């Protein structure tokens, strides 16, 4: 069974099953512990961001390409779903697919020239893209409702059953997280994954070995853009309201922080980071709202200086300290 | 009442463009100084400008210290922040790869911005202009005297920096680090000190920009990001690492933005500088005055 899913090492299969089981049981647990009852709501957002960060981690941690523009793909998915379901009443799932298509094309158009750039230049190109998209969201009042946002977006239904409770949405979102995780784990273990890692280590050496660098970089970029768009659609249908501020540069940077916090080279780290930062911004910062920026800054600096491998590298560090 | 002709409108936009372009040029110069020595982009550069404005507001407005003293005092304070940035955020990093540096400076920028919001709140602040608010009119366009100060300070900065880099030992040491840090340390230049100096200089220039633009366009805690981005656009347009390029790039971006906002659409104002950036990055990343070698061979 493990082999069928692509999880070959036994440890991975156990890890994955344990994780899935834990996720499955969480709403039941929350029902019985009143203090964390509303954590399920936050977990939905954590799941949505996890979807993005897993794919982004593939791009940044494995292929080594910096993108400061993924909030825009997130936003494209959300707005396409939102606008088309509110203005034309089409099925949300259809709109989700349309969002994926559009995001894919945009990612291709932006990615092809951008991924020729390296390092800082790539970061700035994706940053510029992000801001331009935000401005477009803000200015096109007729379609997007401008800065005031777009409201009354309908919820999702699965084959006629409306997803009208938080717990149902939780299951939907985290199922998609698990699917994305599986997909990404498989990509890493495949030829594509090895090619990506070779590109990350040395583009020169990789191309000398015959790896088609542009193709792989663009593929991962488009993949991550499409995945982000799915997350965006889910977000729109859950919250039933979106506005451009949820998809701006700050959010792009937050995604980066999530990955760094969890561990740039680990897909599990992406989930951990996304969940922690989501809880931070939706729950725990209620008392320190004004210090949100400062706290993110401190987190980044601490991780970069003291724990470059992110939180998932802690067990390894503890082990190595213990071994001395 | 005087008729507003297209010519006078264009002139007005040009004046605004040159004014704001000078600020972008100063930010771009700051980027270049740090980039030349460390090959890193300091995303917190815009925050120095923001701090310059807000700290000046504190000294000049809250404490009522006269301009002549509050200006150098502000520059000192912001330079101290720049030094702290290097010491606390940049120097401790053990493996300075491109991604790590970008993230570290972004983290620092966030922190500075958050601290500014904490201290000054979210409202914009005003500064009394250096020589009054009586506008000078000519040919149908209006120039605020403060604009002349802005351009004037840019010229002063350029002259001082050129003299510094060409005529002083310290300046030459900085340039040596830019060319080859290992060789520089072999001849006895303390590269870490040079990095510190580059951050201090960038902070000072950024602060000056912030001080001098606040009387015109006010200053609030979150201006840093857009200033940094546009300053970077100017940098790339002019050619990364080139001082004349920074100035030309800054002025061009300022003009494009001002003319675009006036003639095409003011909602998309910020997009113009960014479109220019994308254009340059996609077509000629070495910029107008930079060399192709600088952008490609330099390992990122």
Number of domains of chain A: 2
Approximate strand percentage of chain A: under 5%
Low-pLDDT segments of chain B: 293-300
Q: Structural class of chain A, please?
A: mainly alpha
Which topology of chain B does CATH recognise?
Answer: ABC transporter involved in vitamin B12 uptake, BtuC
How many helix segments of chain B? 12
Q: Element order, helices and strands of chain B? A: HHHHEEHHHHHHHH
Structure description:
- The complex is a heterodimer of chains A (324) and B (300).
- Chain A is mainly α.
- Chain A folds into 2 domains: 1-37, no CATH class; 42-246, no CATH class.
- Chain A is 74% helix and 2% strand.
- Chain A contains 15 helices and 4 strands.
- In chain A, strands 1-4 form a two-stranded antiparallel sheet. Chain A has a two-stranded antiparallel sheet with strand order 2-3.
- In chain A, a hairpin with a 2-residue loop joins strand 2 (157-158) and strand 3.
- In chain A, helix 3 packs parallel to helix 8, helix 3 crosses helix 12 (249-262) and helix 12 crosses helix 13.
- In chain A, 49% of the residues are buried.
- The mean pLDDT of chain A is 85.
- With 300 residues, chain B is an all-alpha fold.
- Chain B has one domain: ABC transporter involved in vitamin B12 uptake, BtuC.
- In chain B, 74% of the residues lie in helices and 2% in strands.
- Chain B has helices at 6-38, 45-62, 67-90, 98-120, 145-167, 169-179, 181-186, 191-217, 224-238, 243-263, 269-283, 292-296; strands at residues 136-138, 141-143.
- Chain B has a two-stranded antiparallel sheet.
- In chain B, helix 1 (6-38) runs antiparallel to helix 8 (191-217) and helix 10 packs across helix 11 (269-283).
- The termini of chain B are far apart.
- Mean pLDDT of chain B is 86; it is low at 293-300.
- Chain A binds chain B through residues 60, 64, 66, 113-114, 117-121, 123-125, 127-129, 131-132, 135, 138-139, 249, 253, 256-257, 260, 264, 290-301, 304-305, 308, and chain B through 40-41, 88-89, 92-95, 98-100, 102-104, 106-115, 117-118, 225, 229, 232-233, 236, 265, 267-268, 270-271, 274-275, 277-278, 281-282, 285, 295, 300.
